[in-house]
Automatic annotation (TrEMBL), chains A, B:
Family membership: Belongs to the FAD-binding oxidoreductase/transferase type 4 family.
Residue ranges of the region described as Disordered: 1-21
InterPro entries listed in its UniProt record: Alkyl-DHAP_Synthase (IPR025650), FAD-bd_oxidored_4_C (IPR004113), FAD-bd_PCMH (IPR016166), FAD-bd_PCMH-like_sf (IPR036318), FAD-bd_PCMH_sub2 (IPR016169), FAD-linked_Oxase-like_C (IPR016164), Oxid_FAD_bind_N (IPR006094), Vanillyl_alc_oxidase_C-sub2 (IPR016171)
FAD-binding PCMH-type domain: residues covered: 105-286
The keyword Flavoprotein is annotated on this UniProt entry: yes
Originating organism: Nocardioides abyssi
Record key words, sorted: FAD, Flavoprotein
Protein name (Swiss-Prot/TrEMBL): FAD-binding oxidoreductase
């Protein structure tokens, strides 16, 4: 019954990503011939080869800047070569990739510096303050909201602070079940270090293979198993942060009434308040068993109601996802998405739910029985473990497919939001309608519920439409329409992708002008000269 | 099996508290004769009758101030009589009570104003800004950390903003399982309104009968059933706050990555950033069953290890408390604390644990069995429901006993903290030693673990020592020693009593000078003229 599909071994740690594609270049795939035919039939092929041999803009840093940075981190850790700077340009949103593909490297940093520890990060910030350099903290480079595209006007240069050398497991407390990690650890690296101690963090966003501990904290990340393990902000018990005004060390107890929870002010601060240099997280014992299974629902509404019942009964499994009718149909059409019983379920309509349980075998068994009893009672049909296995197998692969679609000239992107249960139908309809209206037919809008709470859930949309050379401008129109629809419905502009620069225009609607004023006040206090990720997060 | 001891009926809502005693005057009790003898034998009797007919300082408000306040809330809602102002003087810490008993009413507000809604609160703040009046938000008046003792120097007067008229249940969302409550609702009032909808909030601090929804939010309160229902900060999904710079409305989704969680910056803000005017909370269905039972452990260490096991296995009951050997002995010596099997357990040594389960009968039964299995396996002895019933019966009564002890001249006070599991023994010893050293023998220090998390727990200490006319100064010495011991150990200065003025000196140690600077920056932004609860929370 135990099925461990997670590529958690240290060997799974990926290297540098391609500057205009996702992930490990060795895992890039062309569209299968059948899919290519489908894409051509629906959208038309309008292949967009990336511009080759793009020149990276010249670094504007003066010798004095470089000398000061070298004094802070060591000469060999200040890199100004084109290849390194190209790889630290922007993140991995579709607009980011489209710009890189079109040869626009205007956001390339002037230098990449690689501090070894907290003290060196602090030294870099001091240099940046003195020389008025903009600083962009860089973890896995997987931002999909423009979080790495800082403003450079008004600065003497822009420096990417790459945390790639800060990869230590600093402390493990087996009694308190906490671990202190450095921010540069990628997901699989952190899990490998913890696994050697018999522990697991349990944080698996789609970017897991590349994203880092520091990035999870800075963006309030949520993972595919967060129903069971908790969102990253719930996993963090302590933070150490380097700021231009000194160090913050937060987290003296599991819970406290000693004023506002300042940890929750740094979580989600996206490099605009400081650079996170240590993260102390709650850990669990490595699960002895993992089982993922599929359930079929007559409709998205039925499946969502079942999720709500589980959450409000305190019966959440470790993984709980529900695809709408559109996403289910696409998923079932992919030959690798359904296993042995694919023929039967592939022909069925309705919606696919993935339910996963991780933990000790007896607890997994008990919970699985209890959850199955509720789901069966509410009209769900069990599909066995094959759909769960298929989901687990491909859980980190969607961004590779996006690259293939972009190659074919199809505009593909995702966006997500969250709301309270009573507003889910309104939000779902509003975002779908906004996207279809903005992009026109043919337009494919898929949705799944990716995270579930007692009081509500998140909706994760995938959009595909004809794009070709107009992809970037078409996406910007669609993104604006969807974001307007989200805020009009009273939902959050982002449940787990952060604000970056892309969501910044909608933040005042969400937290109010006064909320933005508070963020500005905090930033002004911690970063009085405004060197930290200028223009990111704070409008 | 079902045992509902909670006085949750609307009739349980208490009226005004006595200015220098806890709670409902009708429930005040003299020390039982046996206890009186014990107190005399241990500490000596040094009865301290309260000073009678204390004159309340004259209100310093000018007619123009009063007119402006009357324009904001209506003439009949601006009260300057002595009785009303006496009842809004300070909170209910032992130093607060000792000062009132000694006739010191120097902290009495100059006026008590009673706004009816958010708009009137905003209007009062505008008047306060214009006339430079200090504003103290007043809910249940149960602060035990000097949270109502604002600084008045530099202000034209001090106004208590009594939220007693803001007691509406504004909205219920049965689908999302949320409710929006006004801040002036006391615990039993809120539960009665929710019970009429079949819902429960489940927040039962010891101050439950008097404390208010706004106070729970402003102080990051934690309740006796928070293991099951969650701390108050975890129950809050939305807040509306009136500030001198306008309104904050926070909480667009169950969870969000749209920057830092500003809700968590207002929770615990203790009236220093704004006045909370609406609180949207997660609610649950009224539990059909409640059962509380006792368990005996050979030692505090054994019991604490069992709690840790339950928390880390994800098996927390609704209520989980463990008294140390000293508290257990005192508890068992009280004839009303043990029921039918009291003879047997009363003669036993060791430590008493209370385990409570609330919910649907089948879930209660399943969880009870699972918890009992773990506890038995770890060496716990079940004592049946009588000790649980006794605890539930007296769960809100300790402050009445304190009054009786203070009458007898015995210094009695409580303090609490929290830390990670691995530091619990060090913290426990450090605080005990600090208290005994500061107060000298005879000195009774009792402790229980009041709240449990995966990564740690809170320790709640009760201290009794000879005091008499020197009670106030002796307590200040002991409180300082205990607080120094707490921060030296790296624990939090308060797990659920807030900072107020009493814990303020230790806040910089806990969050750092830079953390304090951030709090100052937020306050300066929201309250630029500094009228809100001056001197509370922010050092």
């Amino acid at each position: 019954m135990s099925t461990d599909h997670l590529p958690l071994e240290p060997t799974a740690v990926a290297g540098e990503m391609h500057p205009s594609r996702w992930g490990d270049p060795a895992r890039a795939t062309a569209l299968p011939e059948a899919a290519r035919g489908l894409v051509e039939a629906v959208f038309g092929l309008d292949e967009q080869p990336a511009v080759a041999d793009v020149v990276v803009p010249r670094s504007v840093l003066a010798p004095a800047h470089l000398d000061a940075l070298r004094a802070a981190v060591g000469a060999e850790q200040v890199l100004v070569d084109d290849a390194t700077r190209r790889l630290r340009t922007r993140g991995k949103s579709t607009p980011d990739l489209l710009r890189q593909r079109a040869g626009d490297l205007s956001d390339a940093p002037d230098a990449v510096v690689r501090p070894a520890d907290h003290a060196q990060v602090a030294a870099v910030l001091a240099v940046a303050v003195e020389h008025r350099l903009a600083v962009v903290p860089f973890g896995g480079g997987t931002s999909v909201t423009g979080g790495l595209a800082a403003r450079r006007e008004g600065y003497a240069g822009l420096v990417s602070v790459d945390l790639v050398r800060m990869k230590r497991l600093l402390a493990v407390d087996h009694t308190s079940m906490t671990a202190t990690l450095e921010p540069g650890l990628r997901g699989p690296e952190a899990e490998a270090l913890l696994a050697a101690e018999g522990l697991v963090l349990g944080h698996y966003p789609q970017s897991f293979e590349h994203a880092t501990i520091g990035g999870f904290a800075a963006t309030r990340s949520s993972g595919q198993s967060s129903a069971g393990y908790g969102r990253f902000d719930a996993l963090v018990v302590g933070l150490r942060v380097a700021t231009p005004r000194g160090e913050l060390r937060l987290g003296s107890a599991p819970a406290s009434a000693a004023g506002p929870d300042l940890r929750q002010l740094l979580l989600g601060s996206e490099g605009a308040f400081g650079v996170i240099t240590e993260v102390t997280v709650r850990v669990r014992r490595l699960p002895a068993e993992k089982v993922y299974e599929g359930w079929r629902w007559p409709s998205f509404t039925d499946g969502a109601a079942a999720m709500r019942t589980l959450a409000q009964a305190g019966l959440l499994p470790t993984v709980l996802r529900l695809s709408d009718e559109h996403e289910t149909a696409i998923n079932l059409a992919r030959p690798d998405a359904i296993g042995a019983d694919g023929g039967e379920s592939g022909s069925a309509s309705g919606c696919l739910m993935v339910v996963g349980h991780e933990g000790e075998p007896d607890l997994v068994a008990a919970r699985r029985t209890a959850v199955a009893s509720v789901l069966t009672g509410l009209g769900g049909t069990p599909l066995g473990e094959e759909p769960g296995r298929a989901w687990a197998h491909g859980r980190f692969d969607a961004p590779y497919l996006r690259d293939s679609m972009l190659d074919a000239g199809v505009l593909v992107e995702t966006l997500e939001t969250a709301t309270f249960w009573s507003r889910v139908p309104t939000l779902y309809d509003a975002v779908r309608t906004a996207l279809v209206d903005a992009l026109g037919e043919p337009c494919l809008v898929l949705c799944h519920i990716s995270h579930v709470y007692e009081t509500g859930c998140s909706l994760y949309f995938t959009v595909a439409a004809a794009g070709g050379s107009r992809s970037l401008e078409r996406w910007q129109v669609a993104k604006t329409a969807a974001s307007d629809a989200i805020t009009r419905t009273g939902a959050t502009i982002t449940h787990h992708h952060a604000v970056g620069t892309d969501h910044r225009p909608w933040l005042p609607t969400e937290v109010g002008e006064l909320g933005v004023s508070v963020l500005r006040a905090v930033k002004a206090d911690l970063d009085p000269t405004g060197i930290l990720n200028p223009g990111v997060l704070v409008p």
